[in-house]
Amino acid sequence: MNHPEERLRRIAARFALDGAIERIEGIGHGLINDTFRISCRGRYLLQRLNTHVFPHPAQVMENIARVCRHLAGKPGDSLELIPTLDGADALVTGDGQWWRIYRYIEYSTAHQHCPDDTTAYRAAGMLGRFLRDLSDLPAPPLHQTLPGFHDTRARLSNLRRAADTDSVGRAAQTGATLERLFQLAPLANTLERARMPVRIVHNDTKLNNVLFHERSNAALCVVDLDTVMPGLALHDFGDMVRSAATTPDAGRRRLDTGRFEALLGGWLDGLDGLLLEAELDLLASAPQVITYELALRYMTDYLEGNHYFKTRAPGQNLERCRQLLCLLDSMREQAAEMERIAARCRSRGA
């Protein structure tokens, strides 16, 4: 969405910034929210919350405000919300748009791709510490702002419904891919049947949601808090592996077991003993589940006409699904090695 600079200046001026606004520029690689950097005496990030993706913005902002204030009392950097001139955590404009401002973390950068195992270890350690630091957040529970977000069984049901309806006539173009997804259905029950504890988790643990120092490459803090809500810790770990422990092989994605070990070691070190045995038992299985879940979502969106994920071509979501199935096959082929790695590392999380 395009936003005229004068409008952005009027919005930003309604927050408690330090000094007059000198410059506003669009930044970021995000696919959901619009993000701008503001320069005045200090620097800030102005964001428009996408209320199509997040239909309960008041709950999202209440969650974020509670998380930010809690993390401010912990060691290290964390996001800081800047209040409006009226003392609110967000601004709602006359047209119903929701805006917020964070203080910009200087000398920070984000990696779009994981360059090495050290970076993987540091990112995972920061994400593990994030869960540990939120484990003592006082009641009441955070809002469940996206119900069923990681409900793999519901995602499978959605795909079955989309395939039966075939509203845009694409089911015949999926070849064997659709049937393959249905054959893998037992994966949908892997985490739910284990009766693991519900924790406060991030739910979107891509590598670029950890900020690093641009010179030392030390991990600084976790960002993109819109999806922080009650959930399973292993969903966070599985998504981390899916996004940061893969390498291309002849154009297909495969699991890098060395990167998997770096991520697992860092995450468990950051958690510092938080996990229960039921969670530790499924460390090697979680990446398969979350990879399968995202493949289900891509196929569902393809069959329904590509309404959720941004695409550059009509068949892109189908290709994304097929790439994830290649990655899932790689994980399944290397499952025994993943279990051995988990066994070596799990003493850190016990």
From TrEMBL:
Keyword tags: Coiled coil
Coiled-coil zones: 321-348
Residue ranges annotated for the Aminoglycoside phosphotransferase domain, each copy included: 24-262
The keyword Coiled coil is annotated on this UniProt entry: yes
InterPro entries for the chain: Aminoglycoside_PTrfase, Kinase-like_dom_sf, Pseudomonas-type_ThrB
Pfam family, one: APH
Protein name as it appears in the record: Aminoglycoside phosphotransferase domain-containing protein
The species this protein was found in: Candidatus Sedimenticola endophacoides
